[in-house]
């Protein structure tokens, strides 16, 4: 059974549509939710947690409706927010025990689970020091610990590698993978870096401007996702618009346009579109198949 399901989920703010008829099914495992900044990742997480109301459409977690079953969902779900939200003057132990109690654990169980969880995230030695003196990586681990302490069935991790250096990033990614491998807790993890999610996810969901670009298993993704890079002499915006109108999922990457190569007809569509707009074609070439290509992250991983 899918653990997270959305159907035609839409969230409109006055100036922007953050989610646009998003339909996804998430099975147990590590699921990467990828999109550029502003793609709608945090909005989706907030709706799933009942912190924000959808404009239309449906969302369910663990089979429960997010609009009517909020309290039941929150008992069974952990959440690691994106931004720093930790009190600086208490220790990791005090804070995580408090969060465990908030989730309904009795005092003894809360202390026991806190010690176990802080050990798991690698903060055991420093657990009595005030959080204010922690490094960014340590703070991210405290946020992760409070999301896990009540032994949830799913955790939603919003940009957990934000602000970390390459070593800290690798450690955090390994930790996230183990949440599912060691404890069977399903993980929905967001990032704007596709390459890092490719490494740890069983399944990847890509969204762009609130729309679903792709949802498939990571192995399927890396095997089949081939892209064509298109470069034109002028008017790239017009060409991109026309390619989209022709049904292609164009993603802009600086002066390039990257188009999934669904089949050979893509070449014909690009050639005809460029001719119609009346500009020259500098480049039309097939790219390697890393999911990072979707948002042009080459060289950043
Ligand atoms: N409370 C709000 N009021 C108005 N617009 C909002 C609000 N929250 C988000 N948005 C807009 O909705 C869009 C999606 O934002 P969201 O935070 O979900 O993106 P994201 O993929 O999580 O990106 P980031 O990694 O930058 O947080 C953005 O254009 C954002 O400006």
Automatic annotation (TrEMBL):
Which terms are listed as keywords in the entry? ATP-binding, Nucleotide-binding, Transport
The molecular function GO annotations come to:
ATP binding; ATP hydrolysis activity
Location of the ABC transporter domain: 4-234
SUPFAM superfamilies linked: P-loop containing nucleoside triphosphate hydrolases
- Matching CDD domains, A to Z? ABC_DR_subfamily_A
Taxonomy, superkingdom? Bacteria
Name the coiled-coil region(s): none
Concerning PANTHER family, the annotation shows:
ABC TRANSPORTER, ATP-BINDING PROTEIN
Protein family: Belongs to the ABC transporter superfamily.
Q: What is this protein called?
A: ABC transporter ATP-binding protein
User: What species is given as this protein's source?
Assistant: Jiangella asiatica
Q: Which classification does the entry list for the species?
A: Bacteria, Bacillati, Actinomycetota, Actinomycetes, Jiangellales
């Amino acid at each position: 059974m899918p653990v997270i399901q959305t159907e035609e989920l839409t969230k409109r703010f006055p100036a922007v549509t953050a989610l646009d008829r998003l339909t996804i099914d998430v099975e147990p495992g590590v699921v990467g939710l990828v999109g550029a900044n502003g793609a709608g990742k945090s909005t989706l997480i907030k709706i799933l947690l009942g912190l924000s109301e959808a404009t239309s459409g449906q969302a369910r977690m663990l089979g429960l409706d997010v609009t009517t079953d909020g309290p039941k969902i929150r008992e069974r779900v952990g959440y690691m927010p994106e931004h720093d939200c930790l009190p600086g003057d208490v220790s990791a132990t005090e804070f995580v025990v408090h969060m465990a109690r908030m989730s309904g654990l009795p005092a003894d169980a809360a202390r026991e689970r806190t010690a176990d969880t802080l050990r798991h995230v690698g903060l055991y030695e420093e657990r009595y020091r005030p959080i204010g003196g922690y490094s960014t990586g340590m703070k991210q681990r405290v946020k992760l610990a409070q999301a896990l302490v009540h032994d949830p069935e799913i955790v939603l991790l919003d940009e957990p590698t934000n602000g970390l250096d390459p070593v800290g990033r690798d450690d955090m990614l390994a930790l996230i993978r183990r949440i599912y491998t060691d404890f069977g807790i399903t993980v929905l993890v967001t990032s704007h870096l596709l390459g890092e999610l490719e490494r740890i996810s069983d399944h990847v969901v890509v969204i762009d401007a609130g729309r679903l670009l792709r949802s498939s298993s990571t192995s399927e993704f890396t095997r089949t996702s081939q892209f064509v890079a298109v470069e034109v002499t002028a008017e790239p915006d017009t060409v991109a618009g026309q390619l989209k109108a022709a049904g292609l999922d164009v993603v802009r990457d600086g002066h390039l346009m990257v188009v999934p190569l669904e089949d050979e007809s893509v070449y014909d569509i690009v050639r005809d579109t460029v001719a119609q707009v009346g500009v020259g074609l500098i480049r039309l070439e097939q790219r390697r198949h890393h999911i990072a290509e979707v948002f042009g992250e080459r060289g950043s991983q």
